[in-house]
Amino acid sequence: MNVRSEMHNIDSKSNRRDYLSAGKTNPPLIYFFFFLIYISMDGIWTYVLYTKRLFAYRIHFFMISVLILKALNLLCETEESDESVENLKALLEVEQQQLLYNGKEMRNAEKLSGLGVNDRDLVMIVSHAASSR
Fold first, then answer.
1. Are residues 24 and 72 in the same domain?
2. Which residues, in sequence order, are CB contacts of 1 under 8 Å at separation 6+?
3. Domain that holds residue 32
4. For a Cys-Cys bond, which of 35, 53, 87, 121 suits 74, CB 3.0-4.6 Å?
5. Contact 111/84 with Cβ under 8 angstroms?
6. In the 3-class helix/strand/coil scheme, how is 60-86 assigned residue by residue?
7. Are 108 and 86 in contact (CB under 8 A)?
8. pTM (predicted TM-score)
9. Which strand (E) or helix (H) includes residue 46?
10. Could you tell me which residues come within 8 angstroms of residue 28 by beta carbon, excluding any fewer than 6 positions away?
């Protein structure tokens, strides 16, 4: 048996597959826009240092590295840590089960960051068995 599972939304405007969570399509575009702004600032700063190289110190070159690192951070930004418990349940395809974190039930309206959930933390799925009478 060969089974393939795929989870995606359909973009209503372009009818294309969208693999991001619902409502999370715009942040990558915003991050890329700010990446371009930081890269252009880096280019301007490099030009200023080149034209005024007699007055440039090490700290000025350090500032270029800060701009480059910030631009790369924005380019690589992929994770949103403020997901809701409801989105997590949809991702895990659990509806009737409870999610527990540190022994406490996670309610749908709560945010993962508000509960203190971090990367590689354990979230338990508790299934309620139907009682047979």
1. yes
2. none
3. 17-76
4. 35
5. yes
6. HHHHHHHHHHHHHHHHHCCCCCCCEHH
7. yes
8. 0.45
9. helix 26-51
10. 20, 77, 78
